[in-house]
Amino acid sequence: MGEFDLIRRYFLPVAEQRGHPDLLLALGDDCAIQRVPADQDLVFSVDTQVEGVHFPRHYRPEYTAWRALAAAASDLAAMGATPVCFTLALTLPEADENWLEGFGRGLAQAASQFGLALAGGDTTRGPLTISIQVHGTVPRGQGLMRSGAQVNDLVTVSGTLGDAGAALDYLDAPTPGDDERALLSRYHHPLPRLELGQALRGVASACIDISDGLIADLGHILERSGVGATLNLERLPLSRPLRRCAGERAPQLALSSGDDYELCVTVSEALWAKLPEVIKSRLTVIGRIDGGEGVRFEDGVVLNSGPPGFNHFGSNS
Questions:
Q1: Which CATH architecture has domain 3-139?
Q2: CATH of domain 154-299
Q3: Contacts of 235 by beta carbon, 8 Å cutoff, 6+ apart
Q4: How far apart are the C-alpha atoms of 147 and 290, rounded to whole Å?
Q5: DSSP-derived 3-state class of residue 67
Q6: What is this structure's pTM?
Q7: Could you tell me which residues are beta bridge partners of residue 156?
Q8: In 193-309, where does DSSP find H-type helix?
Q9: Distance between CA 26 and CA 38 in Å, rounded?
Q10: Which of 20-34, 57-71, 285-299 has the lowest mean pLDDT?
Q11: Arithmetic mean of pLDDT, 27-33
């Protein structure tokens, strides 16, 4: 199968399934054309997934596509952006039609779920690698950033943490139980918090998505904002499946494992008090910003030593 036959068969249907009024031209030309309304800022990010690094070898192609697009879309969520479109650069060892059919199906499902239109891309031969660039928009000047956290802000997180990291123990389980399946669902089909990110525009002082682990990603906020944070371990949001499967390891997984794609958000106490309950109910207060450096824990708690989060060029053992 030639490159253009491959694109027409497996990716043109994805591009045609969902349009966007700001996407004026998609597949078929040298470039896509996106119109950015005058009162909006363009937000974009690129993310790369490599077989054997970001997902297991011989991983189901449907899951591979969903996770790749979710990881990229989560960056839009962290900026409070409304999704518009994405481009895909796909490197394949071979044009395996069964794999491509599954990948295209998973990509179409994720694109529909996240409100993203496929605008174009490229295919080439080599080790399995997926690069996705996402585009979104935010009202002018309202993009959420990592650099605005202030002393006495509350540190909050969405959802529950550690589930996807715990799922790694069960990827090859022949007959996972209900708890294991719940954890695996978080790993196979992460859900970027796009609507929550948009609702936090004008509220969050700083925001980041949790892709490499809470400690590592919160650390980026602290570094960019020039502040520290004190966390309360008792307040970490841990799911029941995680508690039952991981036991005493659950807090460590919540702090250091990646792939949850939840949001870590800092909010002033004054704005927190005014937040509608529908937004508050999706966030858990786990600590407070202070004038120190790095992350500390209340009562001087020290966890077992381990990596603070995923590091592409460091030790993750």
A1: 2-Layer Sandwich (3.30)
A2: 3.90.650.10
A3: 284, 285, 286, 287
A4: 14
A5: helix
A6: 0.91
A7: 265, 285
A8: 194-199, 214-225, 240-246, 250-256, 269-274, 277-280
A9: 21
A10: 20-34
A11: 85
User: Which residue, 23, 24, 142, 131, is CA-closest to 81?
Assistant: 142
**How wide is the angle at C-alpha 44 spanned by C-alphas 104 and 73, nearest 5°?**
45
Cα 26–30–32 angle (5° rounding)? 30
- At 258, the amino acid letter reads G
- pLDDT at position 37 is 94
DSSP 147-196: S---TTPEEEEES-SSHHHHHGGGTT-SS--HHHHHHHHHHHS----HHH
b or e along 101-111 (b: 16 or more beta carbons within 10 Å of the residue's beta carbon)? ebbbbbbbbbb
Distance CA 111, CA 76 (A): 14
pLDDT in tens, 250-270: 999 999 998 999 999 999 999
Task: Report domain extents, the chain.
Answer: 3-139, 154-299
CA atoms within 13 A on the CB side of 35: 8
For the chain, the first-to-last Cα distance in angstroms comes to: 40
